[in-house]
Amino acid sequence: MCQSEAVNLLKNNDNQEDREPETRIITLNYGENLERSVFHFQKGWTVRFVRGASLLGRHVDVFTSISGKISWKEGADEFATFAEIKCEQSGAFSYQFVVDNESKPAGNGYILVMPVLLLNEYPLRLNAVACITHISKLLGPLDMWKERLKVAAKAEYNMIHFTPVQELGISNSSYCIADPMQLNPNFSTTEKRYTYDDLATLIKDLEKDFHLLSLQDVVWNHAARNALWLLEHPQCAYNLKNSPHLRPAYILDRLLYHFGIDVINGKYQNRNLNKEINTEEHLKIP
């Protein structure tokens, strides 16, 4: 029995996600920045914010990246007043609070809502995930992926991490995206052009047939230099116009580039700088 099948046999009461929803309290204190702390919650749980001693008698507005500004629910007195949200979506979220309409937040922190993973409709504990990375651009045509990924299941992995599957840029770097809306054309063949719909079908088959879940990087900040949208909107990236402090580095980079071209063309062969480096002598500086 492979590991994923064993995990599928977990009883519901053994699974943390099946516990009764809980309410966890975060106490807000003036000037308390908890950027290095993370509060963990399960989906369905409730986050309740209450005022600490330093905020009693003051006007406090609480904001989260989950639902924006949160309204306070009045209690019998100020000690019973609270603001709360329900964790209905997994992911990492932030919160901050402003006191007496000040211009800067008086404190902040982070909330991590743990995902609920289902493998063929059975719960999969996060600490039971056995993941292996595959470089997508090296897997070949999409119609060959299933057979090539079968070995991951035989090795008792239950999740595959794919590097980006989008169309890559001129450098062919695995994380340099030319068009995020298009599947890498190298996955297609002369007979068929594959799309995201075909990839979705494959992902479902991997789970159904091999008990393999899938995970893929999402790249927001690495666009290829030949990306059409970047050519149309150059202001979205660093360049010598909007970032003049980069000009000295650019000049040095171009000098090194042309120096390398000159070495290839043999202009420095009399200085023991050959086109090819294949002996230890070539590494010695005259």
Automatic annotation (TrEMBL):
Classification via Pfam families: hDGE_amylase (PF14701)
Alphabetical list of SUPFAM superfamilies matching this protein: (Trans)glycosidases
Single biological process term from Gene Ontology: glycogen catabolic process
InterPro entries xref list: AGL/Gdb1 (IPR010401), AGL_glucanoTrfase (IPR032792), GH (IPR017853)
Protein name as annotated: HDGE_amylase domain-containing protein
Recorded GO MF terms: 4-alpha-glucanotransferase activity; amylo-alpha-1,6-glucosidase activity
Gene3D superfamilies per the UniProt record, alphabetical: Glycosidases
Glycogen debranching enzyme glucanotransferase domain: residues covered: 124-284
